[in-house]
Amino acid sequence: MNINKALYVLSMFSDISSGSDTYHQRRVTYIAYRLAEELGFNKQGLSFILQSGFIHDVGVLSDASRIETFRQIINENFEQLTKHAVVSSKIARYFNLHLDVSNAIGLHHTPNEINPAVLGNILFLADNIEVSYRSLSNPFAFLELYDFVAQKSKLFDKDALAAFKRLSACEEFWYSLKSDNLDRELLKIVEEHIYETEQNDFIKRFAYFTAYAVDNLSMFFDGYSVLTKNIAAALGYKLSLNISSLILASLFAHIGNVFIPEDLINSPTKLEDDEFNIIKSHTYYTKMFLDMLEVKRSIKNAAIYHHKHGQKSSYPFCSTELSKCDKIIAVSSTFAALLQDRPYRAAYSNDEARDILKTMEFDKDILNITLDLDLDKIKKQKDEYYEGIRRLFV
Ligand SMILES: [Fe+2]
Ligand SMILES: [Fe+2]
Ligand SMILES: [Fe+2]
Q1: Same domain for 40 and 172?
Q2: Which of 16, 189, 242, 273 has its CA 20 to 30 Å from the CA of residue 7?
Q3: Which residues of 93-112 are buried (b: 16+ CB within 10 A; e: fewer)?
């Protein structure tokens, strides 16, 4: 797996999770990458700047105070900004990224004179440029933006600032920063910079992390992905199937929820048809993310077909032959949802949930095994990866 591309996907995921796409991390990454190129960084250095840029603010994923963060940058409250920088840096370490990357992230709000990290200084300047860029009423006021940033020149590394001066004189740089162009530019860059990981658990860590973030989108989803995964794994053992595929498919199944507005996810009342269509699109967006991540087809299918069972609930993909793995994720995610509170109903008891499952059109053999599972035991199963991620945000 190309780590640079995976982190680009995580960047998009986390930029979107604020409700509307800010493009902040992706734009900072693009600016930092162009500065690093201008400064003559080698291939490895460029990969490190991509990795640190993409997730430098991932620590605010479970923090509702993004606007506050924006204000703190404008007002140069660097001390208050360090909390999310430290959390993001811990997340980089959780992904086993290079120490230079986690250091740069931890120091991305630290001014030059007390910032010992070369990459951290570039990130700090790029972050300030991006925040200033978004405050511009005219995104084509290129030279004014350089002047604005240069007024605070004592905060920045002078070579990096000189590189920005050269870049800002080039209109192509500014066109690339526009939201319409940015993703295309970044995709091209990450495809040119393949940074393969030796560790085969990167994707597992990635899946756990996004599952945790998605479960945090609503208080009703608390631990939903892990409950789904525990049910799926229990079924997988009984049917002698590949457990790691089931784990990844369960954890990835709802990654697309990040595109669904919070008020729909948490709506206590019955949704109108057009609102329900938006909810249904979560599996479409799950497919979009998993396509970008180049996840194995069998895992991707199981994740995106989790609402397909029988004729009644086949949204949103057209009918297809389901594999055993697909059927397991469908029954597991439905069962897990029934066992949890939702904004419009309380959680069902184990027996009530079983009775509801029986009325649905699941594969008969899989359903029978599901009905026999020891649910109390499954509900109690904690997951170290998941709990570890929870601790990163504390
Ligand atoms: Fe930040
Ligand atoms: Fe930032
Ligand atoms: Fe779903």
Answers
A1: yes
A2: 242
A3: bbbebbebbbbbbbbbbbbb
384 in the same domain as 341: yes
Return d(Cα 378, Cα 363) in angstroms, integer: 21
pLDDT band at 273 (very low <50, low <70, confident <90, very high): confident
Q: Is residue 171 domain-shared with residue 122, that is, in the same domain?
A: yes
Q: Are residues 254 and 223 in the same domain?
A: yes
Cis ω for the linkage preceding 343 (within 30 of 0): no
Distance 283 CA to ligand 3 centre (A): 7
254 CA to middle of ligand 3, Å? 6
Query: Which of the ligands is closest to the CA of residue 123?
Result: 2
Q: How far is 52 from 7, CA to CA, in rounded Å?
A: 9
Q: What's the CA-to-centroid distance between 73 and ligand 2, angstroms?
A: 9
315 CB-contact burial (10 Å; exposed 0-12 / middle 13-18 / buried 19+): middle
One domain, residues 47 and 186: yes
Tell me, yes or no, whether 216 and 146 share the same domain: no
In angstroms, rounded to a whole number, what is the distance separating the alpha carbons of residues 294 and 1?
8
* Distance of CA 8 from the midpoint of ligand 3 (Å): 24
Residue that terminates a domain, selected from 173, 192, 211: 192
CATH number of the domain where residue 65 is located: 1.10.3210.10
Q: Residue 77 region, left (φ>0) first, then alpha (ψ -120 to 50), else beta? A: beta
In which domain, by residue range, is 130 found? 3-192
Provide φ and ψ at 266, rounded to 5°.
-100, 15
Main-chain dihedrals φ then ψ at residue 70, nearest 5 degrees? -60, -45
CA 355/CA 252 separation, integer angstroms: 27
Cα 393 to middle of ligand 2, angstroms: 17
The tens digit of pLDDT for each residue in 72-98 reads: 656 666 666 788 899 999 999 999 999
Place of tokens 């004592």: 154
Over residues 149-189, the pLDDT tens digits come to 999 999 999 999 999 999 999 989 999 999 999 999 999 99
Q: Which amino acid is at 283?
A: T
CB neighbourhood size of 166 (10 A): 13
Residues 224 and 327 in one domain: yes
Structural domain contains residue 197? no
Both 13 and 158 in a single domain?
Answer: yes
DSSP 320: -
